[in-house]
């Protein structure tokens, strides 16, 4: 039995719905996806490093399909500061149209979460890694390079003329009832937290006062779990996975 099925069955068992009369698979899977994303936000436990190729014609890059939150941005091994529109206005009244040799700042102002704007747009930028994704040619270079014809990190740095290195909270893959254990991105030790969250959401939406109280208790258990994970992660030496992105969907 898969982990997804086990999580759903545990939720049903603890809510007294083993006959699936109150909650369909679709409802529980939807809540599982919400729980997974919430847990990542709360604990920052799914981090990745992305190489994002830059194009001269592109100032804004849409990473919403892959990124929950940007934590750090680098260009040429230097950290790039994020500024507001007002701060950029103080630097140059023409900043939105300027082109320069290198990226000096980024901004997230007036953009949906998961999108990033560079200043200035860079001259001489090009991309020549084959695109293999609907949202930017996502390439996993942690597996065997030769077998999958995926470039090594040295090849990437040679073939990406100009790029940003993004340290991000990764948006988890959508979970379905048929998702394999190997496809789940959170460790199985976090499954109980997801169960607490799902139970809390369902019980707190109930009109019964006692069930709503149980829901508050489940939410507290979930929050306690998250707090322990945050403390544990602060003591670990986890290394972010490495991804390479060639992004072709930016716009001026």
Low-confidence stretches: 127-156
- Pattern of helices and strands: HHEEEEEHEEEEEHHEHHE
Bulk shape: elongated
Averaged pLDDT, please?
A: 83
What is the CA-atom radius of gyration, in angstroms?
A: 21 Å
How would you summarize what this structure contains?
With 252 residues, the chain is an alpha/beta fold. It has helices at 3-14, 25-43, 85-91, 145-148, 153-159, 191-204, 209-234; strands spanning 47-53, 60-62, 67-75, 78-79, 81-82, 99-100, 105-107, 115-119, 121-122, 138-140, 163-170, 241-245. 35% of the residues lie in helices and 20% in strands.
List keywords for this structure.
252 residues; alpha/beta; six-stranded mixed β-sheet; 12 strands; 20% strand
Question: What this model shows, in words?
Answer:
The chain is of the alpha/beta class and 252 residues long. Helices cover 35% and strands 20% of the residues. It is built from seven helices and twelve strands. The strands form three sheets. Strands 4-3-11-1-12-10 form a six-stranded mixed sheet, with helices on one face. Strands 2-8-7-5 form a four-stranded mixed sheet, with no helix packed on it. The termini are far apart.
Topology:
Blueprint (H helix, E strand, L loop, with lengths): L2 H12 L10 H19 L3 E7 L6 E3 L4 E9 L2 E2 L1 E2 L2 H7 L7 E2 L4 E3 L7 E5 L1 E2 L15 E3 L4 H4 L4 H7 L3 E8 L20 H14 L4 H26 L6 E5 L7
Parallel strand pairs: 1-12, 5-7, 6-9
Antiparallel strand pairs: 1-11, 2-8, 3-4, 3-11, 7-8, 10-12
């Amino acid at each position: 039995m898969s982990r997804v099925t086990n999580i759903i069955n545990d939720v049903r068992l603890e809510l007294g719905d083993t006959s699936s009369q109150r909650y369909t698979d679709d409802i529980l899977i939807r809540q599982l996806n919400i729980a997974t994303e919430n847990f990542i936000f709360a604990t920052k436990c799914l981090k990745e490093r992305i190489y994002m190729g830059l194009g001269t014609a592109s100032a804004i890059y849409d990473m919403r399909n892959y990124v929950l939150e940007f934590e750090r941005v680098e260009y040429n091994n230097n950290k790039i500061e994020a500024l507001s529109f007002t701060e950029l206005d103080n630097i140059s009244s023409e900043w939105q149209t300027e082109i320069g040799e290198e990226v000096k700042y980024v901004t997230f102002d007036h953009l949906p979460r998961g999108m990033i704007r560079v200043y200035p747009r860079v001259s001489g930028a090009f991309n020549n890694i084959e695109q293999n994704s609907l949202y930017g040619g996502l390439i996993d270079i942690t597996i065997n390079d030769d077998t999958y014809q995926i470039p090594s990190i040295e090849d990437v740095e040679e073939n990406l003329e100009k790029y940003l290195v993004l340290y991000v909270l990764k948006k988890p893959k959508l979970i379905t009832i048929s998702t394999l254990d190997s496809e789940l991105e959170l460790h199985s030790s976090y499954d109980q937290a997801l169960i607490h969250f799902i139970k809390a959401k369902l019980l707190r939406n109930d009109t019964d006062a006692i069930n709503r109280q149980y829901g508050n208790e489940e939410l507290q258990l979930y929050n306690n779990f998250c707090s322990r994970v945050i403390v544990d992660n602060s003591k670990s030496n986890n290394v972010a996975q490495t991804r390479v992105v060639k992004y072709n969907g930016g716009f001026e």
